Amino acid sequence: MKISLTGTLIAVLVAAGLPASILAQTTPASPTPAKPPAAVSPAPAKPPAATPAPAKPPAPAPAASAPTELPKELKEMDTNNDGAVSEDEFLQYRTRFLNALDADKDGVITRDEFVKLAEPPYVEANDPNLPPLDQRRRFLNDQFTALDTDQDGKLTQAEAVAAFKVNFQQLDRDRDGKITVADMTAPEPAKQITRAQFIENDTKTFDKLDTNKDGKLSMDEFAVLGAGAPPEAASQVKEQLA
After folding, report:
1. Which H helix or E strand runs over 148?
2. Phi and psi dihedrals of 179, rounded to 5?
């Protein structure tokens, strides 16, 4: 049994005749119960940040549409309007165009006449897509050297036609004897050359340059290969041959 010492002490003091007021002072006050701490309302949780929507992948670039008709120049060659350019049509057009360069109408094209292709009216005077005039002239000068197979300084119709036939074969990619829209998108045939062809081409080049046919190339004969090249390149060739 648990005994309260406080209650026993009060009972002894009452028995001793102490006034009640004194007893009241000596009676310990009942402790005021501590107020429970005010309940702290938890701060409302922040809603989770919205997950950004995944970025849309870029739209694929539209595929380049295949050509549906021949380029302008080839359409002009197609004299029978069948949608294809035969070899005959190609050669006739190119030959007629080349003959227009023959200013003196002597049946051959000189280097000076050929290089006129770099100037109006054959090209637009202020076309921003064209290289500078001197660069165009050098290019045409090199082309003339390649076309003039006997290196006599004159381009005959036979020499021109031979070059035009090669050009036709390059454009006729499917080798069906005509140039069509399909040739514009067909893959270019792989270019290959055999050892025998390489040696034959070099021999032909040598024979063209050997103008006096003595079986040797002089410095002047060899320098023809650099015709139209920048002066510094030509001087380098001459230094190597000296």
Report:
1. none
2. -100, 120
